[in-house]
């Protein structure tokens, strides 16, 4: 098997906002937008067996980057609020 280099934190949450990621090369869109709101994290990398979003650029590693949504507590005007970021 392949050892994952990232583990999700306990406060990981699926976002409530429908985020999209637009991929461009040389100023032109490469494909339709990627919908990145359907799970709590997305792994980018060259290792297609584990990457949620495969990338083929030679400068990228097998497990290159992660977008992680998580629940955070934030004080706004003296009141605690919870948001997924």
From TrEMBL:
InterPro entries: Cell_Proc_Reg/RNA_Proc (IPR050923), FHA_dom (IPR000253), SMAD_FHA_dom_sf (IPR008984). Pfam families: FHA. Residues 42-70 form the FHA domain. GO terms for cellular component: nucleus. One of its GO terms (biological process) is miRNA processing. Gene3D superfamilies: 2.60.200.20. GO terms for molecular function: mRNA binding. PANTHER family: NUCLEAR INHIBITOR OF PROTEIN PHOSPHATASE-1 (PTHR23308). This is FHA domain-containing protein. It comes from Selaginella moellendorffii (Spikemoss). The lineage of its organism: Eukaryota, Viridiplantae, Streptophyta, Embryophyta, Tracheophyta.
């Amino acid at each position: 098997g392949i050892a994952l280099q990232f583990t999700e934190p306990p406060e990981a949450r699926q976002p409530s906002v429908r985020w999209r990621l637009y991929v461009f090369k040389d100023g032109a869109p490469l494909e339709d937008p990627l919908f990145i709101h359907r799970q709590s994290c997305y792994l980018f990398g060259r290792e297609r067996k584990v990457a949620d979003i495969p990338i083929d650029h030679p400068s990228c590693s097998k497990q290159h980057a992660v977008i992680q949504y998580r629940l955070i507590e934030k004080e706004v005007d003296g009141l605690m609020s919870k948001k997924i970021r």
